[in-house]
Amino acid sequence: MPLAVGVVAFVFGLVLAKIVGLLRRRGAAVEPPTEHRQIRSLQASLRLAQKKADEMAAQFESTCVDFNALKEAHEELESAFAAREATLAEAEKAVRDETTKVQELRRELAERAEAKIRAEAQVREIETELSVMEAGSRAMRDEVGRLDAER
């Protein structure tokens, strides 16, 4: 009986070893395709990420070009704005100077108008005095003429 137990144990060990070997081969055969699928999936993800990165890099370059163009346009507008500001400041100064000149001319014109009015008033006063003197002279001549006629 020990021999039978030994043979049974030997056969049992052999069968068990074959089953374990078979299971290992199946496990090994299943695992590499899964790993290959994972590797391929990761490679596909990497290709997509690289494609997206390239697209983003191209978009970034395009944005940089647009930004530089806008920056140059902004600088040109700033310089044009500064030139217009300078022109406007000169025009404002010229307007202030002309306003001052106009005010001085108006003041001078008002003074001359006032002097003219005074001169006209003096002329009227003198004309009035002259007409009064003429009337007095006529009255005296008439009186002298009447007195001469009476004599």
Which segments are poorly predicted (pLDDT under 50) over 5 or more consecutive residues?
A: none
Helices and strands, in N-to-C order? H
* Helical run tally: 1
Shape estimate: rod-shaped
Instruction: Determine the structural class based on helices, strands and strand pairing.
Output: mainly alpha
**Separation, N- and C-terminal Cα atoms:** 213 Å
Largest sheet composition: none
State the share of residues found in helices, binned by percent: over 70%
Topology, number of strands:
0
What fraction of residues sit in β-strands? under 5%
Keyword list:
1 helix; mainly alpha; rod-shaped; 151 residues
What would a concise description of this structure say?
The chain is built from one helix and no strands.
Could you characterize what this model shows?
This protein is an all-alpha fold and about 150 residues long. About 100% of the residues lie in helices and about 0% in strands. It contains 1 helix and no strands. The longest helix is centred in the middle third of the chain and has 149 residues, at about 1-150. It is rod-shaped and about 210 Å long. The model has no long low-confidence stretch (mean pLDDT about 90).
How does the SSE layout of this entry go?
Layout: H1 2-150
